[in-house]
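Long-time lurker. I teach an intro course on protein structure, and each term I like to show students one example going from raw sequence to a predicted 3D structure in token notation. This year I'd like something fresh instead of my usual example. Would anyone be willing to generate the tokens for the chain below so I can use it in lecture? Attribution to the forum is fine with me.
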Amino acid sequence: MIVLNKIYTKTGDAGETALGNGARVAKHSMRVAAYGTSDELNSFVGVARLHADGEIDAALNRIQNDLFDLGADLCRPDMEQDAEAEYPPLRMIDAQVERLEAEIDRMNSALEPLRSFILPGGSVLSAQLHVCRTVSRRAERMAVELATMEAVNPAAVKYLNRLSDWFFVAARVANNGGKDDVLWVPGANR
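-- Reply from a regular --
Happy to contribute to a lecture. Here you go:
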């Protein structure tokens, strides 16, 4: 159980932070940037939820919980030592990716195929979901870059990749089932 009774500790005042295994690293390290960006994404999802209801809101709630799981996964670098850890580390699993895929397929089945790229916008919820999509892509790029330097759970990277697709399709659903999508017109302002 997590207990947070003191919010500031002063242990990060010199520019370092503790990872999930207790190791101290620079706050600008790629690992901290990757899980920090997933935390940023979670905040944007919270803003999107202000405009969501029903199944989209319920799905966004699940995604917010998953993003905390993702942060817990990314903040613990020593995957090869998971078995010896005092507490089993929380890792993303393929079932979380598969849930996103099933939700994407279900939402997309009710949409007309795209004949053009779409511009972020339409409804407020759709615009917010597009912001989530782009922050998710940035978090994915950071996790992929981190994976070139250190071990990263492949399911975490897959989750971020699928999540940005989820946000794209959900943004179309939020635009009246795609009917209110704003289409890109190539060269329109030449």
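Some talking points for your students: The chain has a mean pLDDT of 91. Helices lie at 30-49, 54-74, 94-108, 124-147, 154-174.
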